[in-house]
Automatic annotation (TrEMBL):
GO biological process, one term: immune response
InterPro entries: Ig-like_dom, Ig-like_dom_sf, Ig-like_fold, Ig_sub, Ig_V-set, T-cell_Activation_Regulation
Gene3D superfamilies from the UniProt entry: Immunoglobulins (2.60.40.10)
Membrane topology: Single-pass type I membrane protein
One GO cellular component term: external side of plasma membrane
Pfam hit, one: V-set
Principal subcellular localization: membrane
Protein name: Ig-like domain-containing protein
Amino acid sequence: NAQTCYECKQDSVVDGSVGGSVLLPCIFTGPPPKQINVAWRDEDTKAVLNIKNGSPVFSDQNQKYQGRVFSFQEEFKNGNFSIQMKNLQISDSDTYVCTMIPGGDERRVQLRVSGEMKMISNPEVVADTPGHVTHRSLLGMGIVKVLTVLLLLSILLIDPVF
């Protein structure tokens, strides 16, 4: 039905990092139905978030997602049923399906979560080599990412391409 369909695109792919948060998009175009019901499910059909009569319902949310998945109720009137997933875990890597009820139109979003976030309670500064100082708790990025960024910056400063 051309009047009421999800954005006609290929499935979305969203990348996230452990401990971070992502927005899983679900936009419904056309006039919104009088009764807004949307079901977000993961690939195992676990309830990620249900939206009933225009309000998010957390009571039937799967335990895995409790306290980590939220919607933007003020956007429902615009056909936007996107959700935010916080405190990402590797196990959150999955395909999520947003289904409009009634109608059955659906939007699929593939979430890929990567990396490890290591939080250190007492941040320390480490000098690996003379003139090379890194900070172990730099927003949980991990020492390898920090070293990679520093290496790339030093290469650019020594041999500018531009």
